[in-house]
Design goal:
This protein has about 250 residues and is α+β, with helices and mostly antiparallel strands. It is about 25% helix and about 30% strand. The chain contains two helices and ten strands. It has an eight-stranded mixed beta barrel. Strands 1-2 form a two-stranded antiparallel sheet. Strand 7 and strand 8 form a beta hairpin. The radius of gyration is 29 Å and the shape is elongated. The N terminus is likely disordered. GO terms for molecular function: hydrolase activity. InterPro entries: Sortase, Sortase_D_1, Sortase_dom-sf. Keywords: Hydrolase, Membrane, Transmembrane, Transmembrane helix. It comes from Ruminococcus bicirculans (ex Wegman et al. 2014).
């Protein structure tokens, strides 16, 4: 009986030691595994952000840099599609119907062809990409332009939109008098905020304009869903109405 008890005690002691070793290993390895997982996630997020900002950095540190070739990131366009350039007659701002002719590079659907900046830090809009077209996949990438509105730089109404939980999240912070700038490969176009409105989504009067108006309509509309300052879907829209201040063309 004594020998059996000794054997049992020895076996229990061995199991206890083994359990202790296992517990120590778990205590040591668990934090290391959690740390490795966190580092992996941070690395993936940082790399994704780096890729997104890489293009903007080239423009930010090189005033002569051009926007990325639109065909490189446009599933709607053939990579070998030629640029569409043309002269257009434009009305000179603050003039008595004076017109000039300038070159505009017309975008293909899905092209990123401009950058939008609002000179108000609280608006959170700084060199945001502008795409020609307003499909859901383009809305996920940046600010979109309705293809029934005027080309940037041409005479008419330019209409830009974005989600209120992404690129236009802080649009409600915009103020009357703020300067709004659109830059393209063919020019720089400056506007000034004159008014903001909240309208039901059924009222689309500001999205269209009379092309035969005299004097001609020449302005910019920014709009997004309005949820009383909160993010998400809504049956109301916030509109920011801007008048043109200057147009600077390269050709």
């Amino acid at each position: 009986m004594v020998r059996k008890e000794v054997k049992a005690s020895s076996s229990d002691a061995n199991k206890l030691k083994k359990n202790k070793r296992t517990s120590v290993a778990v205590m040591v390895l668990t934090p290391l595994l959690v740390l490795a997982l966190c580092l992996s996630i941070m690395t993936l997020v940082s790399y994704k952000k780096f890729i997104e900002l890489q293009g903007y950095a080239a423009i930010a540190f090189n005033e002569n840099a051009h926007l990325k070739n639109p065909s490189e990131d446009n599933k709607y366009r053939n990579a070998d599609a030629l640029p569409m350039k043309g002269l257009t007659k434009v009305t000179v701002p603050d003039s008595d119907k004076k017109t000039e002719q300038h070159e505009i590079i017309y975008p293909y659907y899905g092209d990123k062809y401009a950058e939008l900046t609002v000179k108000n830090d609280k608006a959170g809009i700084d060199k945001e990409p502008v795409y020609w077209g307003d499909s859901d996949d383009l809305l996920a990438k940046g600010v979109v332009q309705s293809n029934y509105s005027a080309y940037i730089g041409a005479t008419g109404r330019v209409v830009l939109a974005a989600h209120n939980h992404t690129y236009f999240r802080y649009l409600p912070n915009i103020l009357v008098g703020d300067q709004v700038i659109l830059k393209t490969d063919y020019g720089k176009f400056t506007y000034e905020v004159t008014e903001t409105k909240v309208l039901p989504d059924t009222d689309t009067s500001l999205l269209y304009y009379d092309v035969t108006a005299d004097p001609p309509v020449d302005d910019l509309i920014l709009y997004t869903c309005w949820n009383n300052g909160y993010m998400g879907l809504s049956d109301q829209r916030l509109y920011v109405i801007c008048k043109v201040v200057s147009k600077e063309y390269k050709n």
